[in-house]
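User: structure tokens for this one?
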Amino acid sequence: MKLYDFPGAPNPRRVKIFAKEKGISLELVNCDMANREHKSPEFLKKNPSGKIPVLELADGRCISESVAICRYLESIVSEPNLFGKNAFETSYIESRNRHIELELWTQIGISWVNGPIVGSMGLFKQIPAAKEASDKNVKTFYERLDNEFSKSEYVAGERYTVADITLLSAIDFASEMVNLKPDKSFKHLHRWHNMISLRPSSAV
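Assistant:
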């Protein structure tokens, strides 16, 4: 299986971490986002949304979207289970993962699009007020996470799941590329981050 990837891109990293946890080997194919390769007619045949990651199967069929790809990988290698072992756990993990995607990832994305790196590319008309608001929202969500981790070891309870992968990728990207690293005062959040970062899969 081929995974269309780009160094430093957070969503392909989610899939790479997930695959590493499963012991699944993927052939990484560099999709040069800097040169807009993900918007080329050839790539749009693989994913009409023009985004990475894309998983290409041996027969040429393609799956896009990080969680969809991870669900496919879970379906072919069931253990270790990362999406839930019963009806409640599956639903709860899904809800926690969605919280991170909709309430944290979206705000990091707004700060990224309106930040200096994207600004230097000249691709979008930036809105400073939007970045100011999203920066604040990210920091508020970090505070919420710190409180949650004072009561729970992992994002979705007492074991490692796909929700931890989603949060790790979000925080690392925000810290390294968007200047939104969690404040040192958030000791519970940093406890979680340090623990997850020590997993071998997190090194991808």
